[in-house]
Specification:
- It contains 10 helices and 10 strands.
- The protein is of the alpha/beta class.
- The strands form 2 sheets. It has a 5-stranded mixed beta sheet with strand order 3-2-1-4-5, with helices on both faces. Strands 8-7-6-9-10 form a 5-stranded mixed beta sheet, sandwiched between helices.
- Helix 5 (163-174) packs across helix 6 (180-188).
- The protein is globular.
- Bound molecules: 5'-O-[(R)-(carboxyoxy)(hydroxy)phosphoryl]adenosine and zinc ion.
- 5'-O-[(R)-(carboxyoxy)(hydroxy)phosphoryl]adenosine is lined by residues 10, 137-139, 164, 167-168, 179-182, 185, 273-275, 277-278, 302-303.
Length: 340
């Protein structure tokens, strides 16, 4: 069964064709980065306008690269939540029109669940459920238990900013470049991560054992840099700020993640979302011989249509369909943690 996947939740206009949930026949990602870079962040109005201009050609290219015609597609899967509302509506409206015109099923899918599905597109030995999910992107920092592709229980989340947002804001403040995560990761390779010692948030106990927080770190790096400087006499190098910030940002995630692994007894971790591309995060998790850590390849960490088509196939095989009246939603309530 060949599923067309469409993704337009943020600043990537993407479409892919995936056969039977795992064989990628094409995966086209048109990035809007150059259009948002002058503003050091995604401008929602520009994002939705670019999606409107690009969506037809992106979908066409995904069909061409797969060597297929519109009539060969069996179903359309599309991100309907969470994300920027105007951007989501472009992909969703296009997918509805495609499904209606071809008289094929429409499947509206959750972008974050799709990120968790991404490693299954390439792994010959996909991780068995249940596992621990680490969903880290520009808008989310979620540690969850995954019992199926559509069944997650949030164990921990951020109590303020998302981890990717912290990377983006620090990069923006210091003018490192955009998008912040990838730039800081690159700069950190030649920096000293011990040059600044930023404190970890006080969240390691009780109901917050699996939670993370980034507003304190952001304030420390942006407004109180001098306070946390270890080598007082050296010049401040931008690479050292990047490396020290990145180390602390990832250590915050890892403390909560390892607490969750310890408390649940789950030993497989699946990471997803843009921050899953981070090299320090990957290296630290690779050190843990007692855990199986599964990362998507770098080109499937960020937003893409293949993960949407892949997860969409599983809803289809269960006989599920979305009505053409399905709406986009900027937020997903289920991603809020329930405290006792
Ligand atoms: O999943 P994604 O492409 O879009 C959202 O759904 O948000 O994630 C984008 C986020 C941005 O905050 C970006 O700075 C971050 O992922 N990111 C990284 C890296 N590459 C992208 N953060 C840390 N290290 C990276 N190498
Ligand atoms: Zn994403």
């Amino acid at each position: 069964m060949k599923v067309l996947g469409i993704e337009s939740s943020c600043d990537e206009c993407a479409a892919a064709v995936v056969e039977d949930g795992s064989r990628m026949l094409s995966n086209v990602v048109a990035t809007q980065i150059p259009f948002h870079a002058p503003y050091n962040g995604v401008v929602p109005e520009i994002a939705s306008r670019k999606h409107t201009e690009w969506i037809y050609n992106v979908v066409k290219e995904s069909l061409d690269k797969a060597g297929l015609d519109a009539k060969d597609i069996d179903a359309v899967a599309v991100t309907s939540r969470p994300g920027l509302l105007g951007s989501l509506l472009v992909g969703l409206s296009f997918a509805k029109a495609f499904a209606w015109a071809r008289n094929i099923p429409l499947i509206a899918v959750d972008h974050m669940l799709a990120h968790l599905y991404a490693p299954r597109l390439v792994s010959e030995n996909p991780p068995a459920y249940p596992f621990l999910g680490l969903l880290v992107s520009g808008g989310h920092s979620i540690i969850c238990r995954a019992d199926n592709f559509d069944d997650i229980t949030v164990l921990g989340t951020t109590i303020d900013d998302a981890v990717g947002e912290a990377f983006d804001k620090v990069a923006k403040h210091y003018g490192f470049g955009y998008p912040g995560g990838a730039v800081i990761d690159r700069m950190a390779q030649s920096g000293d991560s011990g040059a600044f010692r930023f404190p970890l948030p006080n969240l390691h106990k009780g109901e917050h054992r699996h939670d993370v927080s980034y507003s304190g770190l952001k304030t420390a790096v942006i407004n109180q840099l001098e306070m946390f400087r270890v080598k007082k006499n050296d010049d401040i190098k931008p690479e050292d700020i990047a490396a020290s910030f990145q180390k602390t940002a990832v250590d915050i995630l890892l403390r909560a993640l390892f607490n969750a692994a310890c408390d649940t007894g789950l030993t497989t971790i699946v990471a997803g979302g843009g921050v899953a591309a981070n090299s320090y995060l990957r290296a630290r998790l690779a050190e843990r011989q007692d855990l199986r850590c599964v990362f998507p390849p770098l080109d499937l960490c960020g937003d893409n249509g293949a993960m949407i088509a892949g997860i969409g196939y599983h809803y289809l095989t269960r006989g599920e369909r979305s009505p053409l009246s399905v709406n986009a939603s900027a937020r997903v309530m289920g991603f809020k943690k329930k405290y006792p």
